[in-house]
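PROTEIN DESIGN WORKSHEET
SECTION A - STRUCTURE
LENGTH: 204
TOKENS:
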């Protein structure tokens, strides 16, 4: 049995969706950020970074969204959630790492500026840049990464669950999604998936 530690409104939504896609047997543990449970001794023993997602397995605990998504895809190969060839898998990883290392960071500047500076004025400047930075990211995804109808082409993959999370953030970060028809169509298609609908009831 594996256990996913998640919190509402976080990137943990992506592996939660993927576990459903894989048909996995798992437990889901809600970490209450409003009560600072992520900083409790019990949770810090699971993930010293105090963040979600964290995936507890028989072999140990995994953190970081791209690593967890890749693990789930490889643990359930029959679900076909990642390209089987080395180059295709690397392309999928490149996309997910772009979301984690660039897009997620740009989004975090809106509410987590204190991670980078204690200067309130500088934090406000970072917040002001979020809409344009996230729009630039949407443009790169739409024009460079997105193959369609899913991120990697004809086959749904671990990348789609992650993009769904990012698109939800874009909607509140000031990105005009009307300018990005591929991303918008992808978001609509994701909302139609039974697994997504089931998991969203736990994340809202």
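SECTION B - SEQUENCE
RESIDUE ASSIGNMENT:
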């Amino acid at each position: 049995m594996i256990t996913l530690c998640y919190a509402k409104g976080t990137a943990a939504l992506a592996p939660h969706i993927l576990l459903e896609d894989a048909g996995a047997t798992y437990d889901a543990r809600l970490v209450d950020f409003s009560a600072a449970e992520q900083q409790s001794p019990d949770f810090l023993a699971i993930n010293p970074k105090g963040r979600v997602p964290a995936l507890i397995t028989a072999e140990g605990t995994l953190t970081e969204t791209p690593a967890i998504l890749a693990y789930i895809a490889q643990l359930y190969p029959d679900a076909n959630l990642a390209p089987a060839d080395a180059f295709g898998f690397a392309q999928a990883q490149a996309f997910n790492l772009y979301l984690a290392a660039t897009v997620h960071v740009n989004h975090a500047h809106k509410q987590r500026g204190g991670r980078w500076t204690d200067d309130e004025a500088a934090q406000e400047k970072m917040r002001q840049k979020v809409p344009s930075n996230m729009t630039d990211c949407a443009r790169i995804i739409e024009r460079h990464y997105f193959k369609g109808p899913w991120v990697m082409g004809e086959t749904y993959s671990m990348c789609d669950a992650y993009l769904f999370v990012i698109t939800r953030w874009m909607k509140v970060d000031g990105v005009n999604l009307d300018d990005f028809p591929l991303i918008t169509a992808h978001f609509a298609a994701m909302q139609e998936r039974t697994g997504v609908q089931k998991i969203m009831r736990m994340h809202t």
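SECTION C - NOTES
Strands lie at 2-6, 26-30, 54-57, 60-63.
The chain has a mean pLDDT of 97.
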